[in-house]
TrEMBL record:
Modulates cellular lipopolysaccharide (LPS) levels by regulating LpxC, which is involved in lipid A biosynthesis. May act by modulating the proteolytic activity of FtsH towards LpxC. May also coordinate assembly of proteins involved in LPS synthesis at the plasma membrane. Keywords: Cell inner membrane, Cell membrane, Iron, Membrane, Metal-binding, Repeat, TPR repeat, Transmembrane, Transmembrane helix. It comes from the Bacteria. GO terms for molecular function: iron ion binding. The gene is lapB. This is Lipopolysaccharide assembly protein B. NCBIfam families: PRK11788.1-5. The keyword Membrane applies. It comes from Billgrantia gudaonensis. The lineage of its organism: Bacteria, Pseudomonadati, Pseudomonadota, Gammaproteobacteria, Oceanospirillales. Gene3D superfamilies: Tetratricopeptide repeat domain. Residues 22-395 are cytoplasmic. Fe cation binds at C363, C366, C377, C380. It holds the Pfam family TPR_16. It is a single-pass membrane protein.
Length: 395
């Protein structure tokens, strides 16, 4: 038997034993059945000691009769198994509860919520959805309906049904929960991406504007609006949209540089690119930004101008990426003068290896790091929590 399960069952056994003992002391036990209750409890312990967890659970559930005093203990027992990764056992306990005709409406709804959480955990999404839809429709208790809606939103998010998630969450949940507000803006970005693929730019634009009205900090919405403008060769408009991103979230400047450079290249406007980059540099000295600006200087004024810019920035903000690029520039300079220094190549190999080993993005919620920027974290499934890494080894 896994250690976690053994521990859960022992905890449950102690809790039930304590409850039975207290019940006996207070004389609330049904005088007709005290021996049966105690016998079920010891039978459960016996199964537990013989490593038969399924039969132990059945015996414990039988020992603990369902009434208004014990319903919470039953629910907790089920939840305990769910959090321990034993959701199938939680289903058994919660379904057993739900079958009792003595439950009040409130208690029955509470058990249905827990049961839908068990189904979600087990990936039985259809069964969870049926229960939750029914609770949303029929419950007259506001907090129950609210929780059922939150779980439905989680379910639709998992299924990639963005419009359904939005229909449930908007406007109440979006207004009340920061996390759902952030997610809602991303659902609209997902819908806009689908509309863009099916050649409906008008629909996509409308959805992206709605995303921005829900979450004005949604960087992805502006990146997508810029991409839409690029589709129809409106490069100046794309640049204007991209230049709003630093006001939304300064840390995402490195993410906007590639499309910004692309739009200027299509306009054949190197000077315009340099002006934009200088404006950005005045706000924050990201490594990729310094390198991109240095490259435009190198094209316009030569290698020495690029070296001057990178050296000045490295004096202010140390950066491994900046140092790596500076070594490139030194090597180019020496090559053109006909005296290449092999020591620079050696240093470059080391900085390059160090840069290869570092991740570029990190989820602020679960800490997952990696090279690509995920709008939804693949580990913790939260939206908009993965961000560029800053600092000496990052941006
Ligand atoms: Zn995460």
């Amino acid at each position: 038997m896994p250690d976690a399960l053994l521990l859960s069952l022992l905890v449950a056994a102690v809790a039930i034993g304590w409850w039975l003992g207290r019940r006996e002391r207070h004389g609330t036990s049904d005088p007709a059945q005290p021996a049966t209750l105690t016998r079920d409890y010891f039978v459960g312990l016996n199964y537990l000691l013989n490593e038969q967890p399924d039969r132990a659970i059945e015996a414990f559930v039988a020992a603990l009769e369902v009434n208004s005093d014990t319903i919470d203990t039953h629910i907790t027992l089920g939840n305990l198994f769910r959090t321990r990764g034993e959701a199938d056992r939680a289903v058994k306990i919660h379904q057993n509860l739900l079958a009792r005709p003595t439950l009040t409406t409130g208690q029955s709804e509470q058990v249905q919520l827990e049961l839908s959480r068990d189904f979600l955990k087990l990936g039985l999404l259809d069964r969870a959805e049926r229960l939750l839809q029914q609770l949303v429709r029929e419950s007259s208790h506001d907090p129950t309906r609210h929780t059922a809606k939150q779980l439905l939103v989680e379910l639709f998010d998992r299924e990639g049904e963005w419009q359904a998630a939005l229909d449930v969450a908007h406007p109440t949940l979006v207004r009340q929960h920061d996390e759902i507000r952030r997610a809602a803006a991303h659902w609209l970005c997902e819908l806009a991406a689908q509309a863009r693929q099916t050649a409906s730019p008008g629909v996509a634009r409308k959805q992206l504007r709605q995303a921005l009205s829900i979450d004005p900090k949604c960087v992805r919405a502006n990146l997508s609006l810029a991409a839409l403008a690029m589709d129809t060769a409106r490069y100046r408009e794309a640049i204007r949209v991209l230049m709003r991103i630093p006001d939304q979230d300064l840390d995402f400047v490195p993410t906007m540089l590639e499309p910004l450079q692309h739009a200027h290249r299509l306009l054949d406007d190197d000077a315009g690119l340099a002006t934009c980059l200088e404006q950005l540099l005045a706000r924050a000295a990201f490594t990729s930004l310094v390198i991109l600006l240095a490259e435009t200087r190198r094209r316009q004024e030569g290698v020495q101008a690029a070296i001057d810019l990178v050296t000045e920035q490295l004096d202010r903000t140390p950066s491994l990426g900046g140092l790596d690029y500076l070594l490139d520039l030194y090597y180019q300079q020496q090559q053109s003068s006909g005296e290449p220094d092999s020591r620079i190549r050696l240093l470059k190999q080391h900085t390059h290896a160090l840069l290869q080993a570092r991740p570029r993005h990190r989820c602020q919620r679960c800490g997952l790091t990696g090279e690509p920027l995920h709008w939804q974290c693949p580990r913790c499934r939260s939206w908009g929590t993965t961000r560029p890494i800053t600092g000496i080894e990052g941006e």
